[in-house]
Write a structure and sequence with these properties.
CATH class of the largest domain: Alpha Beta
Oligomer: single chain
Number of helices: 11
Shape: elongated
Helix content: 25-40%
Distance between the termini: 63 Å
CATH superfamily of the largest domain: Chloramphenicol acetyltransferase-like domain
Strand content: 25-35%
Radius of gyration: 27 Å
Number of domains: 2
Length: about 450
């Protein structure tokens, strides 16, 4: 009895992913729990475990394939002693059956990611005749996969052809080498990676000479960022409150705390056990401000207001081709050193695309800090379902009046973006002032 391995859902909202790498090859024996592949989503790269044991009979989806739909067939295992060819035939025959009863001899086995996200995958229907469209490969329905040989996929990518526009002539409608050659001779179709421009885009392209530009296809991260930001600005009524915070006391306390850090062994050298950043203290200040003003620690739902009991603070981290917001959970309860250590780990793994979905999804508010780039002030876009985000500018020397005297002080401008459905103007002002008071009296972070 063949075992079908399908594309797992690494998060409840995942619809597709990139099969980055196979860690097994056809003919290899695998056991339950063995790492067999690496899957890339728009935010992370995760290792995938086999949920069953057997021999790899067919790797259906080649390594490097993008936009592989959740629950689509990616590999077939043969049970011990079963003929590999027969296992593959049985797997595809089961997918072509009209109903679930006909497919019963074929075991459905979604690959198990190495995290709790596998529970989300288990809650989704497995298979559901996904291979039917892959087998027949006429114009595949939206959300279906493509059934093509690895060589055909590679040739299509090299020649810039769209597999979805090619009819397969191989067994069960599989796209094979001769189909790619024929499509190229007939003029072919542009690759799916570079979509044909619509009328509005054509108007833009007409303004420039073809030799003066190139079109770079959007990667999955950029597509998701674009979609979410547009949705946020279209559906969330933003308004903004800006406060200027005096950093003198905070910078003094930070210096004293860092100077007091004990030395710790790191390999063969000794180094301070911690080094606090201004951003670490900003995260703590946001969490503490939300604790002081709990009415602002909310999310808007059509059925009612979701009031959060803890401050889970997302922090925008730049990664190649986009950004991600790992979340410091219960930040109001954590020490500055704990927040600092956790953020360093998050930043390292975020840039390696190794964060787990539960580490960057959710949150009750966010911090976006562009101070290190010399930006004085800016307004950030809210990340739903959150209702607030703090945009932090650079600390700089400014002339301020203090006790009727003009003095120089380190001032940092912070702009709070708020969802007006959940947070009214007066409440946003109260939250911003609470944050400002904590920043200017930073010893309260230690209490």
């Amino acid at each position: 009895m063949s075992i079908k391995i399908t594309m797992p859902a690494l998060s409840p909202t995942m619809e597709s992913g990139t099969l980055a790498k196979w860690l097994v090859k056809e003919g290899d024996k695998v056991r339950s729990g063995d790492i067999i592949a690496e899957i890339e989503t728009d935010k992370a790269t995760m290792e995938v475990e086999a949920a069953d044991e057997g021999v790899v009979a067919r790797l259906v989806v080649p390594a490097g394939s993008a936009d592989v739909k959740v629950n689509s067939l990616i590999a077939v295992l043969a049970e011990e002693g079963e003929d590999a060819a027969q296992a593959v035939k049985a797997a595809f025959a089961g997918a072509e059956s009209a109903g679930p009863a006909a497919a019963a001899p074929v075991k459905e086995s979604a690959a198990a990611p190495e995290s709790a996200a596998n529970k989300a995958a288990a809650a989704l229907p497995a298979g559901q005749a996904m291979a039917v469209a892959e087998q027949k490969n006429t114009a595949p329905a939206k959300g279906r996969g493509l059934f093509a040989s690895p060589l055909a996929r590679r040739l299509a990518a090299q020649k810039g052809l769209d597999l979805a526009a090619i009819t397969g002539s191989g067994p069960h409608g599989r796209i094979i080498q001769r189909d790619i050659v024929a499509a190229e001779a007939a003029g072919g179709a542009p690759a799916a990676g570079v979509p044909a421009p619509d009328a509005a885009e054509n108007a833009v392209l007409a303004l420039f000479k073809p030799e003066d530009y190139e079109i770079v296809p959007h990667n999955p991260i950029r597509k998701v960022i674009a979609r979410r930001l547009v949705e946020s600005k279209q559906h969330v009524p933003h308004f903004y409150v800006t406060v200027d915070c005096n950093l003198d006391a905070l910078l003094k306390l930070r210096s004293e705390l860092n100077m007091a850090a004990p030395m710790a062994k790191k390999g063969e050298i000794s180094a301070p056990a911690y080094k606090l950043s201004v951003n670490d203290m900003v995260i703590k200040a946001v969490a503490a401000a939300l604790k002081r003003v709990p009415e602002a620690n909310v999310s808007w739902l059509e059925t009612g207001m979701m009031r959060h009991k803890h401050s889970d603070i997302g922090v925008a981290v730049a990664i190649p081709d986009g950004l991600i917001t790992p979340i410091i959970r219960r930040a109001e309860e954590k020490s500055l050193t704990s927040i600092s250590t956790e953020m360093k780990d998050f930043i390292k793994r975020a840039r390696q695309m190794k964060l787990k979905p539960e580490e960057y999804q959710g949150g009750t508010s966010s911090v976006s800090n562009m101070g290190m780039f010399g930006v004085k002030s800016f307004s950030a876009i809210i990340n739903p379902p959150q209702a607030t985000i703090f945009a932090v500018g650079a600390g700089e020397k400014r002339a301020v009046v203090q006790k009727d005297a003009l003095i120089a002080a380190d001032i940092m401008s912070v702009t709070l973006s708020a969802d007006h459905r959940a947070v009214d103007g007066a409440l946003a002002a109260e939250l911003a002032q609470s944050f400002k008071n904590i920043i200017e009296n930073p010893v309260t972070m230690l209490l």
